[in-house]
């Protein structure tokens, strides 16, 4: 037999509406509905006990005192309405039997070290980012400074003055050319010129280029640099090295040309091994092509141009051994109403026109004299200046003229061309060179005449300028008894 009881015959919701008759008056009690009849009952919240029908009847129960009321493994801490099972020192988790258990936690020192490490890493990253940003800004400032220093404004002014677009001259960035030359690695050097170094480079479109880099910076070189950028694009001739562009944002100015893969004429004919493969026909062809360019510059260009530094180092040879004239840094545009320019003497010792050296008056005949020395190099295989020779032979032009006076031409000719059976042509070219080397410029032929004479020799004609008094017997006497 079971005795069941309840309070009233209403639900919990209805009972709570009437506070005066509501029985669950303890703060920590609550009402619940019976399952087998009418009415309701009260009971204390979990963790509380005692008389729930009194105002403060439900009191906190200390679960830690009664072992069966807690499942703590390492110790019990009573809380209002419950309890906690703490872990031993150095551990974290829930110290219950059969629960998550306690796991060893990081020590304060380890946490401190980790925190400091993270802080240091963040600080280093911040410093690196700041350094890179400052470096980028400094690099941009330097590029702007170099642009001004390398004559960027002067170049722009000259392009505008000549009514030419800046798009005609490609402006390369320093990073483009560094990438093209593997940061100007020594393995990419293909030659040394008077004022700098020439590197081989490969552009992103796989084009091979030659990049001329000055050794140092001075105002005279800047003028030459700007002059070459202005002059070269005006020359439309297949035997002139094509200028592709320039770079202004580096410490020294850079010029970018098409790449000519067989080096300079000087490096070929003054090398004993290579010189053997340059027969007379090749040499005559190179001489004619060089003369053709100079004739074009003097007579056919829209504005006449004096190269002012004609020499074998500035004559390049491509894969077909076609001559290409380069290095127009010293060249000068000649106004149509003038025949000479008053300038500071500039050129290469051994090729310099003696009249120009004495008067400072630059004329087209100055290029004629320099070309005459190049003809001598092709004839003799000797350099314009040879410091290892006896005093009388150091200057090729003077030595050659003295040999002709002594009628001993054969003794000075390159052995590689003597046995080819072309002595008549060789003698004609020797006399042509002699005519180019007159001390007085007015006694020299023009480059147009020289080019025509050389072309005539190639086509089978005979040298006519300055030979009216020469005949076969004179040719034999020039050659000497040899």
From TrEMBL:
Q: Spell out the CDD domains in the cross-references.
A: EGF_CA (cd00054), STKc_IRAK (cd14066)
Q: Which reaction does it catalyse?
A: L-threonyl-[protein] + ATP = O-phospho-L-threonyl-[protein] + ADP + H(+); L-seryl-[protein] + ATP = O-phospho-L-seryl-[protein] + ADP + H(+)
Signal peptide feature range = none
- Tell me what topology the record assigns in the membrane: Single-pass type I membrane protein
GO molecular function ontology, one term from the record: protein serine/threonine kinase activity
Indicate the principal place this protein occupies in or around the cell. membrane
Instruction: State the Gene Ontology BP annotations.
Output: cell surface receptor signaling pathway
* Subcellular localization, as worded in the UniProt entry: Membrane
Q: Which residues form the Protein kinase domain?
A: 184-466
**SUPFAM superfamilies, A to Z:** EGF/Laminin, Protein kinase-like (PK-like)
Keyword annotations from UniProtKB, A to Z: ATP-binding, Disulfide bond, EGF-like domain, Kinase, Membrane, Nucleotide-binding, Phosphoprotein, Repeat, Serine/threonine-protein kinase, Signal, Transferase, Transmembrane, Transmembrane helix
The record's section on Pfam families has: EGF_CA (PF07645), Pkinase (PF00069)
Question: Which residue windows are coiled coil?
Answer: none
Parts of the chain that traverse the membrane: 112-134
Q: Name one GO cellular component term.
A: plasma membrane
> What does the UniProt function comment say about this protein?
Serine/threonine-protein kinase that may function as a signaling receptor of extracellular matrix component. Binding to pectin may have significance in the control of cell expansion, morphogenesis and development.
Name of protein:
Protein kinase domain-containing protein
In which organism is this protein found? Buddleja alternifolia
């Amino acid at each position: 037999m079971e005795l069941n009881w309840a309070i009233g015959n209403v639900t919990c919701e209805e009972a709570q509406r009437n506070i005066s008759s509501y029985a669950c008056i303890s703060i920590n009690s609550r009402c619940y509905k019976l399952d087998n009849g009418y009415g309701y009952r009260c009971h204390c919240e979990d963790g509380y006990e005692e008389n729930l029908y009194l105002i403060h009847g439900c009191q906190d129960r200390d679960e830690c005192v009664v072992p069966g009321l807690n499942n703590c493994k390492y110790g019990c801490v009573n809380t209002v309405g419950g309890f906690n099972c703490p872990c031993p020192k150095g551990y974290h988790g829930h110290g219950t039997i059969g629960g998550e258990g306690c796991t060893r936690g990081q020590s304060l020192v380890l946490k401190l070290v980790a925190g400091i490490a993270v802080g240091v890493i963040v600080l280093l990253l911040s410093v690196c980012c700041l350094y890179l940003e400052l470096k980028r800004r400094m690099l941009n400032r330097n590029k702007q400074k170099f642009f001004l220093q390398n004559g960027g404004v002067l170049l722009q002014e000259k392009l505008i003055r000549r009514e030419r677009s800046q798009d005609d001259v490609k402006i390369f960035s320093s990073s483009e050319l560094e990438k093209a030359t593997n940061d100007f690695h020594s393995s990419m050097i293909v030659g040394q010129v008077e004022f700098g170094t020439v590197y081989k480079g490969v552009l992103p479109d796989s084009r091979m280029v030659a990049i001329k880099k000055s050794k140092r910076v001075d105002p005279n070189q800047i003028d030459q640099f700007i002059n070459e950028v202005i002059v070269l694009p005006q020359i439309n001739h297949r035997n002139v090295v094509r200028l592709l562009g320039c770079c202004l944002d580096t410490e020294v100015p850079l010029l970018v040309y098409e790449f000519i893969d067989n080096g300079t004429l000087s490096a070929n004919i003054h090398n004993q091994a290579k010189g053997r493969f340059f027969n007379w026909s090749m040499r005559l062809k190179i001489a004619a092509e060089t003369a053709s360019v100079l004739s074009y510059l003097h007579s056919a260009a829209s504005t006449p141009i004096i190269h002012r530094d004609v020499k074998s180092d500035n004559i390049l040879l491509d894969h077909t051994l076609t001559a290409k004239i380069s290095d127009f840094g010293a060249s000068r545009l000649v106004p149509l109403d003038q025949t000479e320019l008053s300038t500071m003497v500039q050129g290469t010792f051994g090729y310099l026109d003696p009249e120009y050296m004495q008067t400072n008056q630059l004329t087209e005949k100055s290029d004629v004299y320099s070309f005459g020395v190049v003809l001598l190099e092709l004839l003799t295989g000797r350099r314009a200046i040879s410091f290892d020779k006896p005093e009388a032979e150091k200057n090729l032009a003077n030595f050659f003229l003295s040999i002709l006076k002594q009628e001993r031409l054969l003794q000075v000719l390159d052995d590689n061309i003597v046995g080819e059976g072309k002595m008549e042509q060789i003698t004609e070219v020797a006399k042509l060179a002699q005519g180019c080397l007159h001390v007085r410029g007015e006694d020299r032929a023009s480059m147009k005449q020289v080019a025509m004479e050389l072309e005539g020799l190639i086509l089978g004609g005979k040298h006519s300028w300055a030979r009216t008094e020469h005949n076969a017997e004179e040719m034999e006497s020039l050659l000497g008894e040899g």
